[in-house]
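Q: Convert this sequence to structure tokens.
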Amino acid sequence: MMELKSQRISRSEIFRDHIERILKDQGTDTDDEWWEDEEAWEELGELAWGDRDYVSNSKKLKIESRERLVFAVYRKDKNALFHQIEEEAGLMAQEPETEGIHLVFFVQDMRNQAKLETCFSHTYQAKLTNQIRENTGKKNPSVKCTYILEREDKKQSVRLYDLRRYEIMQMPPVSARINMESADKEQGENQEGSLHGLVFTARLYQLVDIYNMIGDQLFNDNVRFGINEILGVDQAICRTLEEEPEHFWYKNNGITILVRIGKADLRKSEVLTLDELEPGKDPSFSIINGAQTITASAKCFFNMELQREEDRENKDYWEKKLEKSKRAQVLVRVIYLPREDGAGSGSLGKEISVALNRQKPIKMEDIAFTTYQVRKTARYLEREMKAGRGDFSLVRRGEGILRNRQLELISFVRARKACWGEPGEARSKGANELLKLKIDEDGNYVFYYQDIFVKEWTEAEERQEDQVFKRFYGAVWFADQLARRYEKEKRQIKKEEPEILTAVRNGKWYFTAALIQVLNGFAKKENSEGRIEPDYSGFSSSVEDVEGNLLQGIVSFAQIVAVYAHIYRNEYGELDSNLFKKSDCYEGLMEAMEQVYKGGRRTDIVWKKTEEETVLTELLTDFCSLFVPGVFEENASEINISQQEAAMTAVEEFLGEKYVIFGRTRVRVKSMAEAMGKTVEYILTQYPQGLDGLEEYAGGWITSDSEKAWGSDGYFAGAPRAIKVGGATYWIGTLSNTGRKTRQVREMCRQAGVKRGEIAWYDSDGNKVFGW
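A:
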């Protein structure tokens, strides 16, 4: 059971990565980890797992994108699938500001893709376009299609065969260590620490067959994955295969395969094994150059196969044409990485991939990099780095992954948004939106969002640049590095209340923006247009300065957000991922934090004097003290340990002023997680027949297996709640939203035969959340 669950999670992660690549390719990728939403993760699991047709959309997956996405998994019945797609696309087209529909088909092999693509383009595409036109009112709505080839997750050997050993050229091993002593360099035969490769000719169809076996995971290390066809390359490839396959070797640049783990073994002269795949294991090799050749050739080959099957009168013609095309050959390079680079995410493999893919399709980031504002910034940063004074340099897309202390433009912009006080926008806006350009009165491209490259910086003379840059951008590098460190630290936080976990998972940019203000002492200055904004002239902190308290600080800040959102729930709504996609809550919270920071440790300075806000003041005080210990030194004696413990007790109460009713008994609970635990205990005690088949019908959220419960998986990823019933101990996984909890408990009530009207849950406002 655990192995099956692990495979399901792994498959969901593969689908997530495919979707993320699509978002990145279209420029709508945000910094929002949408898959961490419980409902989105469950929907992703439905999409990724199973042997039936399934259709979902970007709204269900909590993906923010004006180009609405519809995801379809094709297994059996394409006509029924298209009917579902019409319904989903119609609903998505009714969403406000819809710019078009992007259909993403997941198929199991190229034969299915050929059938699906032919049927869709001939029968359904025009019909769907008309439907979207009616719903959106647009004359020419965009309807795009992307096909993702899934990998069959089974044990299999990946090989190139029928090779001629005497034609294979083996490159001498080359040291991958820049500072290796000359004596070590001479030991080229030590291939584990060296870069080495093979060059040979192989049949193109074999590589297409490997693609059909592995799917789009074959291009995991390809920086150009997902590009659309340009300059008619696909048609040219297919034309060569159909008309003159013997010329293919001469007209194509070839294929480069990067092998991360392994070494060349030519003992079997006609066979080269690239990998031995296992279920749940990613391939240890990737095609890093030639992805378009493989995908275009695969489409051509399998379209011919489809023609052979469907055009029975001309079956012999298509058979001969296909067999002739299969004789096409291609030049292949296989590069083996040294063990220390290949086993991890070493930079050498990335550097090779980038070097082989210089010709990238133009994207918004490439255009933005040509603007005067960016060129000025890049020149300044490069000059500072060369002088030994700079923190980082600004690099073009695809190059920032190679060296330390470099930022790509989109990373710079997200960090700047956080420093500016807009962490919600840093998280939720896609690259195309953040880098949006307009033409100024002089006919030059400038950024639509003027707070990214401000007027003072754009117009600064060279002698002023250092002073102006520090004022506006002095914390950008820190913001980027802190956000990256946050991602690593948050993975350790699992055993907290659901509200706290929600804030931890979604609050990266809120936390980053808030901590920067604390470390900067909330310094502000009036700009040239009279607006008061942060001033980073004196900012000097580094991530190393705060990393010792970072984990504690993340939890502390999550508690602050949870309490603040609870106090002002009528203004900001429910504490969920959507709260962190806007900056409204952050702005109000910063007003409170600044007042506490500047007012000292005394609680009577709080802007309101309710008990709740006194608790919030204590939390804000502790957070500021954690990272700036001396800020409250003057009044530090006024707060003792017992008062801090009392404040934390109050936090728990404010996060859960709720109660449940069992029959005529009313029981107060601190959270819906506690309500769930007490309810399950009540049901199993009063209705012991509910124990029959419990763990089967409960669906993975209750177990008597302690190892499973504390395996930090699924609903048990938070702290599981233990209950004792009839001498046995059961653990309840409560890591789900309230809606999911009520559905789970409702099923238990049904299975156990609980009387109607016996159980009810109420929130702190007296609203009925659940009833049976």
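The longest helix spans residues 110-136.
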